[in-house]
Amino acid sequence: MTELGPVAWPPAPIRTERLVLRESEAQDRAAFIELFASPKVRTYLGGPRPRDELEREVPELPGRRPGLFVIDLDGAMIGAITLDRRDAERPGHIRPDAGEAELGYMFLPGAWGCGYAAEACAAALGWFAGAFPGEPVVLCTQTANDRSTHLAAKLGFTEVERFEEWGAEQWFGVWSPVASSGLREIRPDQYGHPAPPVRPHVRPGSPARKPKRLGSLSNASIG
Ligand SMILES: CC(C)(COP(=O)(O)OP(=O)(O)OC[C@H]1O[C@@H](n2cnc3c(N)ncnc32)[C@H](O)[C@@H]1OP(=O)(O)O)[C@@H](O)C(=O)NCCC(=O)NCCS
Where would I find the N-acetyltransferase domain in this sequence (predicted)? Predict the structure, then answer.
């Protein structure tokens, strides 16, 4: 995982109708541990991590790095969203030089089914469109992860390809600010730069990919 790149970070907290996207704080530590220890959250992300291990390893101030937004509902963390650069050695690219911005998301199960993930991700994409005008964002999630593929489609991601990784079929999609005019927060007239053409890129002679135990977003450092 590579960090997002030159951008003023953190941005001022982003307020949506019900949520705040903000930098992490020490009070979020328990929620970070819960996210990574939850079998439900981690079903498609390589499985839960042992809680005692997390208690030992998660720093006092977890998740404080460019590209990681804590999602706050009424003062409490309910999830996290990441925007990172996609590793070149992983499958799934739309640029010859790789390093695409990639969206990841994890929400506590108690916050599922309320539209919070869609609301927060739309705001994060809106922020990204302002910070990196015209740049597309990619997303990779297991095909079996129905909630996630549904959310991806709702946000305006469209399928580029599918491939096997970590022993499961992955759905790889792309979002561009121009194409996603359906989102309230992101208007093409607001970010009037044409998005670069999007097409899957297969690099000839790519080295064999290292299998990784953990899935999307789980690669993101929480330290
Ligand atoms: C993927 C994940 C974020 C999806 O969360 P979610 O709560 O299902 O997603 P949404 O925010 O889209 O909300 C879903 C439903 O809330 C309902 N809802 C209830 N009240 C609502 C409101 N006020 N506004 C909007 N939707 C509302 C809607 O019915 C919506 O479903 P719909 O799109 O069919 O209308 C969540 O399942 C998760 O954290 N999974 C574990 C981590 C993971 O697998 N991440 C993927 C790797 S990137």
Answer: 19-190
